[in-house]
Amino acid sequence: MHILVVVGSGVKSGNTAKLAQAFEKGAKEAGHQTDYIFLGEKRIEGCRGCGACQKGNKGCAVKDDMQELYPLLEESDMVVLASPLYFWTISGRLKSFVDRFYALSEKDRYPHKETALLMTAGDEGEETFRQAVHYYRVLADALKWTDRGMYLAGGCAGGEAPKRTMDEKHLEGAYKFGLSIK
pLDDT digits over 98-111, tens only? Predict the structure, then answer.
């Protein structure tokens, strides 16, 4: 299986990236091919809603770094969305990336993929990830993608190093999640 891991954080060596890399390591050990995208180094605008992508299959009218990511999306069998929790949902970077999926659709039908969600948050309360999980489930259902699960890592302090911490249990959990993908 070809797995695309997309990190929607702006911190290249932060907790979300570490979690995604642990998942990717497990997936590779399980025999999968992976591609890793760090959106913090990409310029991706939000969807303009112009509809150009739906007229004559011309592709997206927005010419930014998303153009180099569309082929990776098309080649993948599974898309793993990794994000820190920002204001109770996924990051704006990842949301802009997801909004641009519209250019992959034909008559509101999307190529079938499997998907998973990886998230980090400083808080570890019971309701911490509720809104983000709801969004992810609605997204997977709307795209008709097969949900392979999620790993939610609460209690991860953020900020600049050395404050940034990731409990080893979360890295191990994400690794085992990647390893479990068949």
Answer: 999 999 998 889 99
